[in-house]
Amino acid sequence: MRSKALVRFYTILKLLDTVNQAVGKTFIQKALYIIKEGFSLDLDYQFRLYYYGPYSDKISADIDTLESGRLLRIEHDNSTGYQISITSQGKNFIKNFETEIENIEEINEKINKVLKLSENKTAREMELLGTTLYFLKFTEDERKLLNSVKMTKPHFTDIEIQNAIQKIKSTILN
Q1: pLDDT tens, 16-70?
Q2: How far apart are alpha carbons 42 and 44 in whole angstroms?
Q3: Which of 17, 22, 47, 144 has the smallest CB count inside 10 Å?
């Protein structure tokens, strides 16, 4: 493996290529959190709980670096927020560097798992899944878990949180 940055860049670009639609920063942040914490892939990111759930400053820096290199495109408008998509240069990056990454099959498999976990591919769904997984580090008791998520995310219903708990337990903890 050449560098940790190469693996991080590949993972972000491959995520964008695989999801095959423009997504926002929240979606990318939570997807990478779930890949790291839920599916145990060390991407050299440190996370803290933030407004929309687990957040890493380094992911934001990596996104900016990839945009500067024209490997991804970030568009913003007031109605949809940030929309990030891979560029043709980003697709070429994936092809050119996939032979340099030792655990490429594992990365690709975990990207597919997180996208399968996120049925609708929305930032809102990823916010709930990421936050629920974050609090699972502290308790597996469903009532305490539901209350912890509800306390930080009051805009989600109990049913939505319970569904997220079940989805994570059946997909990640099995």
Answers
A1: 999 988 899 999 999 999 999 999 998 999 999 998 899 999 999 999 999 999 9
A2: 6
A3: 144
